[in-house]
Sequence to fold (146 residues):
Amino acid sequence: MRARQTHGGATAVAPVRSGLIASASADIATAVARYASAAAARGRLARLVAEIDSAIAACEAAHLEGLRHAPRSLGQDGDRARDLARSVLGVAVVDRIEDRECRDTSRVSDVMECLWALQDVALDHMYPGRRRLSHDDEVHEAMGLL
Fold:
């Protein structure tokens, strides 16, 4: 530390950044930036899961009403959830899920299957350590998600 004179006559202490202190400060700044980035990613994933949950709830309500074919509103909810998933998870990931799970979304149960597959991948990204069945690993490997 080095002292310097200020305008009012008071002495202020200016830190000297060298060696270990500078290195530790840089490491702390890097860790804070990494934490902020991870928190932002978790927030995006949480919004995605909430959007998918909302679409799934609408599908479940339609299923309980006895509807077999998905009305236009369910298709729009599913499209909105898939668009958000593309922006959060990436186009390639969602396209692989859609190729496998979302081929035909004319029935309510098909829309729900598609949304559950998206939700499963979003939760895997959100909680990488969560337990999965070995079948899930095989499916995700086949889809190129692991």
Notes: The beta strands are 2-5, 11-14. Residues 62 and 108 are 7 Å apart (CA to CA). Residues 20-64 form the longest helix (45 residues).
